[in-house]
Design brief:
Length: about 70
């Protein structure tokens, strides 16, 4: 599937520079950036879920420690 990506001049220059630096096409750099962004978002969601489980499970202990 194809998509047109519209960037301002500064971001286009940055993308061009990154592509040149890593010897990749601009498309590859965008794909890598999207993969990284998605992985970070997933990790953040899993971290939040784990924190919420611990906070719920150990609410009494956390309350006692806070005193």
């Amino acid at each position: 599937m194809a998509m047109t990506l519209r960037l301002d001049e500064a971001h286009d220059e940055l993308l061009e520079a990154l592509a040149a630096k890593f010897g990749r096409s601009k498309t590859e750099v965008v794909q890598l950036a999207l993969d990284d962004f998605a992985a970070r978002a997933d990790k953040s969601a899993r971290t939040r879920a784990a924190f919420d489980r611990v906070r719920s499970r150990d609410a009494d202990l956390l309350d006692r420690l806070a005193r």
